[in-house]
């Protein structure tokens, strides 16, 4: 639902990079370049950021039964 606070594998904090990553990729920048500029080098951390899908708005539409 929300970006994980830390990487699942190595434990590096990642949540503070999400807003910059999201805004820059929405403007059309290449995700690889953005991750390199932000200093996210480990493949496990890159997978967490690239694989994240924002579902909070989708889940909020459903009523609790």
Describe the structure concisely for a colleague.
The chain is built from 4 helices and no strands.
Task: Describe the model.
By secondary structure, the protein is an all-alpha fold. It has one domain: Orthogonal Bundle (Arc Repressor Mutant, subunit A), CATH 1.10.10.60. The chain has 4 helices and no strands. It is globular and about 45 Å long.
Annotate the secondary structure layout.
Elements: H1 18-26, H2 31-38, H3 43-51, H4 56-60
Helix pairs in contact: 1-2
Keywords:
Arc Repressor Mutant, subunit A, 48% helix, 65 residues, mainly alpha, globular
Stretches where pLDDT is under 50 for at least 5 consecutive residues are none
Shape: globular
CATH class: Mainly Alpha
Query: Number of domains in the coordinates?
Result: 1
Number of strands: 0
CATH topology: Arc Repressor Mutant, subunit A
In terms of structural class, how would the helical and strand content be classed?
Answer: mainly alpha
**Name of the CATH superfamily:** Homeodomain-like
Percent of residues in beta strands = under 5%
Mean model confidence by pLDDT: 91
CATH architecture: Orthogonal Bundle
Distance between the termini: 20 Å
Q: Give helix and strand order, one letter per element, not per position.
A: HHHH
**Radius of gyration from CA coordinates:** 13 Å
Largest sheet: none
